[in-house]
């Protein structure tokens, strides 16, 4: 469930096209664009960025001038633009964050961005929405709202730590997920399921109900 004061970070991957992702983009409180995504957002006609953050190596100078006062330049190359945008959001006091446009186009960027969710979740309420579903990072045992028949995958970033989940078609009890594929392609049996673990880092993916199995 999304809160009312949502900050979107729009990355430069596949631009939102699913109604769920588009509605978040339209009705969120503010949009922070990674620099390469700013032109896509302006061209979409949905809205303009509230801020553009990055090293500015992927944005036209004319657009920088057009968005004068909204562009935040980070020269460091120690982090990617998504993390720069996240740090800006945290420094600005924004705690409810949805990441859009962070998947698709390049698989290496996709994997890197998904893995960053674990770091971000330590400091904010953050989810990542794509055109096919959404990712939630968990730092403790949780009850996850779902729909009956919804496709679910569970990924452990601590492969030696046992986890349990109930309410899915294929439940497990105190079993480590040593490989990413081991928790994939599951299905919710009702309006929620639970995941239990101690000292683990877990990412859950839920597909939109209108996405084919």
Give an overview in words.
It is a single chain. The protein is an alpha/beta fold. It has two domains: 7-131, Rossmann fold (3-Layer(aba) Sandwich); 138-207, Thiamin pyrophosphokinase, thiamin-binding domain (Jelly Rolls), CATH 2.60.120.320. Helix content is 23%, strand content 31%. The chain has five helices and 14 strands. The chain has helices at 19-27, 38-44, 61-66, 81-91, 107-121, and strands at residues 7-10, 30-34, 51-54, 71-73, 96-100, 125-129, 133-138, 142-145, 151-156, 162-166, 172-176, 186-187, 192-197, 202-207. Strands 4-3-2-1-5-6-7-14-9-12 form a ten-stranded mixed beta sheet. A hairpin with a 3-residue loop joins strand 6 (125-129) and strand 7. It is elongated, with a radius of gyration of 18 Å. The two termini are 23 Å apart. The mean pLDDT is 90.
Return the domain count. Answer: 2
Specify the biggest β-sheet. Answer: 10 strands, mixed
Mean pLDDT reading: 90
CATH class of the largest domain: Alpha Beta
**Amount of helix:** 10-25%
Got a strand count? 14
């Amino acid at each position: 469930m999304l809160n009312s004061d949502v900050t979107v970070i729009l990355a430069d991957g596949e631009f939102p096209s699913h109604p769920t992702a588009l509605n978040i983009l339209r009705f969120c409180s503010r949009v922070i664009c990674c620099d390469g995504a700013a032109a896509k957002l302006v061209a979409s006609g949905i809205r303009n960025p509230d801020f553009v953050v990055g090293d500015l190596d992927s944005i036209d100078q004319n657009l920088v001038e057009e968005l004068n006062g909204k562009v935040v330049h980070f020269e460091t190359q120690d982090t990617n633009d998504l993390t720069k945008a996240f740090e800006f959001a945290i420094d600005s006091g924004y705690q409810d964050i949805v990441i859009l446009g962070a998947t698709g186009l390049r698989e290496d960027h996709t994997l890197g961005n998904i893995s960053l969710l674990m770091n971000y979740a330590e400091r904010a309420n953050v989810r990542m929405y794509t055109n096919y579903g959404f990712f939630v990072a968990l730092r403790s045992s949780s009850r996850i709202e779902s729909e009956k028949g919804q496709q679910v995958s569970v990924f452990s970033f601590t492969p030696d730590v046992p986890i349990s989940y109930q309410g899915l078609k294929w439940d497990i009890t105190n079993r480590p997920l040593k490989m990413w594929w081991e928790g994939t392609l599951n299905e919710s049996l009702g309006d929620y399921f639970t995941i239990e673990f101690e000292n683990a880092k877990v990412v859950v993916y839920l597909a939109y109900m209108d996405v084919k199995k």
